[in-house]
Amino acid sequence: MSNGKRVGQAEGHVELRASIQGLTRHALSAACYDLSVFALVAVPRSAPEPLTYSIPRELEPFTVAGSRVRVPMRERQLTGIVVEVQAASDLDPGVIRPINEVLDPQPLVPAEELQLARFIADYYRCPLGNTLAAMLPVRLLRADSETVSLTPSGVGVDAAGLDATSAAILTALGEGGSTRLPALLAKVGSRDRRALDGLVRLGLVEVRRRRRDRPPPSEVTALRIADRPLEQLLEECRRAPRQRDALQWLSDAGRPALVAELRAVVGCSHATVRALMDRGAVVSFTQRAPRPPRWALRTAPERHALTDEQQASVAAIADAVSTGGYAPFLLEGVTGSGKTEVYLRSLEDVLERGGSGLVLVPEIGLTPAAAGAVERRFGARAAVVHSAQSDGERWREWRRAADGETRVVVGPRSALFTPLRDLRLIVVDEEHDSAYKQQESPRYHARDLALVLGKRLEIPVVLCSATPSVEAAALVRRGLATHLRLTRRVAGGSLPQVEVVDLRGEPPEPGEQGHTWLSRRLREAMTETLAAGDQIILLMQRRGWAPLLLCRDCGTRIQCPSCSVSLVVHRRSADLRCHYCGHRAPVPASCAGCGGTLLDAVGAGTEKVAELLALDYPDVPVAILDRDTVRRRDGLRHSLGAFAAGKVRVLVGTQMVAKGHHFPDVTLTGVISADALLGLPDFRAAERTFQLLTQVAGRSGRGSRPGRVIIQTYFPDHPAVRHATTHDVTSFLDDELLFRNAFGYPPATRMAVVRYESRDMKAASTAATQAARAATPLPPGVRLRGPAPAPIERIRGAWRWQLLVTAPSRDLLREVLERIEAAPPVRAVRMVVDVDPLSTL
Ligand code: ADP
Ligand code: ZN
Fold first, then answer.
1. Rounded mean pLDDT of 141-168?
2. Whose CA is nearest to atom 20 of ligand 1?
3. Does pLDDT of 450 surpass 90?
4. Which residues pair with 516 in a beta bridge?
5. Chain-centroid distance, C-alpha 129
6. Taking the CA of residue 805 as centre, how many other CA atoms within 13 Å lie in the half-sphere pointing to its CB?
7. I need a surface site. Which of 274, 295, 323, 491 has the fewest CB within 10 A?
8. pLDDT class for 660, splitting at 50, 70, 90?
């Protein structure tokens, strides 16, 4: 304790010196004021707009747009990015403070990135500092951690005469010694740190700061398996299943792995790694910036003679690359039609011309095929970016790209911000995938940003999909993008035959409240498929056992205490769970409302379907693939691996099973219910359903034997179902565009949802109402829906009210949003602006 105190004082001393230095600089720059220049500095989470600082003479050569700098703000120092250097400022020179430090030898953010950041900040309504922080690969703008404690003179001081917040702070600190700042502010119920700053000035409280904005070290710790027989090692830790898993994985990988990677893929803790090291089963060593080959590089790169259709597409893209200029393409083709091969060739062409290329994929974990193909083709010139990487790895890949060492980057949406040199081509694979939309601020859509970036850099952008988004289709129809089509599967083989089972004509399953999960037709087909030795994929969108628990006596559904949704019954973990906030509760023996004991689990999820299969086909191994099983240690690799190896014959899962997996022995896919998405009150319901049905259908019959698909539904005539049956993407898009145009939904208009969230329902509705008033009178063509409670009215204890704005143009949308944002804030209400929302729930 006393030791800690001494350290704290020493640090305080250093800070004092630093601030004297700052003063001197201030005086200096004020003296030669007419010579100074100014920097606008964006800092995350502290100021919505960039702040003005003066640039001390000695720092002038290093302070340019894109430099990362330390700047003072009140009693603190912040890390931010210079977004502009100006020769003059309108501000009173007396209030302008100087920059303290320039942090990197080279400016961190290249000019194009900075421009893109400005676009994102403006279009997606996110402060520039926050946007930049989100674009950087590691947290290089992270605020200092701050620990607050009483000074000797603050101990036992009389709080009388202080304001309530200050008094509360002193009390809280008196109880607990030193406290982290966020915890302290939460305790005293204030988000404002002014009271704290006041106490610091009075000398009653001190704040110790630790910087957290440093780039990760360039050395990494890697692990390799000890030089002893694997059996022996496994035997030694037979009582520690996680350690065994880790060893097995390392052995399978056949190469050293980074600690972070091992932990991410095996899902083990640091303690597990430590234990393995302690028992000498793995050996750790440090290495400098290795790039472990992530995907099996053993197989030789495949090079095929292109089909005529592929050839035509490659030629069109090559033409655009050589001409230069912005050129969007939509490369449409059923799964297996060779789209990947087309963009690989296009990338080869770009590299030959000295350029570099970027490939975006929805999620590496679920679509490893594309990343693997790129890496096999381009070897060390390619870099794969993914979430299992450690900060150090991510940072190194970023710099490699900036230095021109990496020529092709493949990764999820954030890979768009890799500062590749001479970028000449952007590919967006599976462009329709909703994973491209970031669900937190900045809420950008990577496909749309790829187009924005393409326009700025004047380069081609290729959007690929078997089921193009309505947005991409609209670009083609307006003549704004070139349509390239691959109409046949390369390996030959026709598309699977799709059958619709009308559930209205099915006898209900016993004990299932009139529902049928496995129709007679589906069972028949499954039996045939299994008899033929083939595999089956079943799509069931809900996880768990049953989506709700119902009291038969009073009709009450057991709800989440913090969200306006029913709790889902989970059999495996024997509990009820909220899929929105994660709340868990034991399954009650009786209804809390009426005391009735007849509680029914109504409906079905993946667990129930797997159970029904086990009853019908007791000898057939079945696995579940959904977020529950993936979350479990190594779940994804395990399920997919076992299925690929044929150890599992039926894979039941949520949309995860629809992703680009290639299982040649699957000849039947069944959709348990096409209606789960159709029923959602969201204008994209039909589009999502069509895409999902088509994607999951594409899993069937990818090998030599023809595949079939069975879709069960209560709405066999819905266009999304009908067109999926005939694989008719074009007709579906025609219908859908008609609908969007008629009702003024995107892409016919630009949309934003503005949501007000608060624990106080009245406050949320007041905020929404005031905002709606601020928006009116609406500019011509702009439509405002709401204020109204969101379809899911409450999540995590917060009530949600929202406005839905649609406008004929981007500028009009921005105009209205600016007015809404300028509405007076309501206490304890969080405003969320989501431009081009993927969901309005
Ligand atoms: P998609 O991306 O449209 O699903 P892929 O590009 O992955 O399709 O191609 C599907 C399979 O066909 C892959 O195994 C690929 O190697 C192979 N393939 C692609 N183009 C050709 C070709 N011209 N000749 C032979 N095989 C090809
Ligand atoms: Zn909940």
1. 85
2. 338
3. yes
4. none
5. 19
6. 32
7. 323
8. low
Assigned token pair, 569: 């019954």
Please report, for residues 64, 67, 132, the alpha-carbon distance to residue 110 in angstroms, rounded to integers and kept in the order given.
Answer: 10, 9, 12
CA atoms within 13 A on the CB side of 295: 25
Q: Is the peptide bond preceding residue 460 cis, with omega within 30 degrees of 0?
A: no
Closest CA to 379 of 266, 436, 275, 297: 297
Task: Please tell me the predicted confidence (pLDDT) of residue 652.
Answer: 94
What CA–CA distance (Å, rounded) separates 715 from 587?
33
Residue 277, H or E segment: helix 270-278
Q: What's the sign of the alpha-carbon dihedral 640, 644, 646, 650?
A: positive
Minimum-distance ligand 1 atom for the alpha carbon of 305: 23
Buried b (16+ CB within 10 A) or exposed e, 380-404: eebbbbbeebbbbbbbbbbbbbbee
Q: Distance between CA 528 and CA 243 in Å, rounded?
A: 41
**Residue of 751, 749, 754 whose CA lies nearest to 822:** 754
Site to substitute for ligand 1 among 340, 464, 661, most atoms within 8 A of C-beta: 340
Atom 18 of ligand 1: nearest residue by CA position: 338
pLDDT band at 266 (very low <50, low <70, confident <90, very high): confident
Mutate which of 488, 490, 663 for ligand 1? The one with the most ligand atoms within 8 Å of its CB, which is 490
Which pLDDT band holds residue 35 (cuts at 50, 70, 90)? low
Locate the ligand 1 atom nearest the alpha carbon of residue 660 and give its number: 4
What are the pLDDT digits (tens) for 543-585?
999 998 999 888 889 999 999 999 999 998 889 999 999 899 9
Gap between the Cα atoms of 650 and 512, Å rounded: 22
Strands (E), 553-642: 568-570, 575-577, 584-586, 599-602, 622-625
Whole-number pLDDT of residue 617? 93
Token pair 């800092």 is found at 43
Contacts of 802 (CB under 8 A, 6+ apart): 753, 754, 755, 756, 768, 786, 787, 788, 789, 790, 840
| Per-residue pLDDT tens over the stretch 312-341 | 999 999 999 999 999 999 999 988 889 999
The whole-angstrom separation of Cα 430 and Cα 463 is: 8
| Amino acid 253: pLDDT | 79
Q: Is the pTM of this model over 0.90?
A: no
Q: What is the CA radius of gyration of the chain?
A: 29
Q: Which ligand places an atom closest to the C-alpha of 580?
A: 2
Give the 3-state DSSP-derived string for 137-164, with helices as H, strands as E and coil as C. Answer: CCCCCCCCEEEEEECHHHCCCCCCCCCH
Share of residues in the chain with pLDDT > 70 (%): 93
Residue 19 scores a pLDDT above 80: no
491 alpha carbon to ligand 1 midpoint, in Å? Answer: 7
φ, ψ for residue 117, nearest 5 deg: -60, -40
Tokens of 793: 């009215």
Structure tokens at 459: 């380069």
Three-class SS state of 409: strand
Task: Pull the structure tokens for residue 498.
Answer: 């799709």
Q: Is the dihedral of CA 350, 356, 361, 367 positive or negative?
A: positive
Pocket of ligand 1 (CB under 6 A): 302, 304-307, 310, 333, 335-341, 490-491
Residue type, 816: V
**Which residue has a Cα nearest atom 10 of ligand 1?**
336
> Whole-angstrom Cα distance, residue 471 to residue 431?
10
Q: Which of 313, 337, 341, 702 to mutate to test the pocket of ligand 1 (most atoms within 8 A of CB)?
A: 341
Q: Which residues contact 741 (CB under 8 A, 6 or more apart)?
A: 748
Question: Which numbered ligand comes closest to the C-alpha of 566?
Answer: 2
Which residue puts its alpha carbon closest to atom 23 of ligand 1?
306
Please give the pLDDT value at position 176.
67
Average confidence (pLDDT) over 426-455: 95
- Residue 82 identity (one-letter amino acid): V
Q: What is the DSSP letter of 437?
A: B
- pLDDT at position 241, please? 87
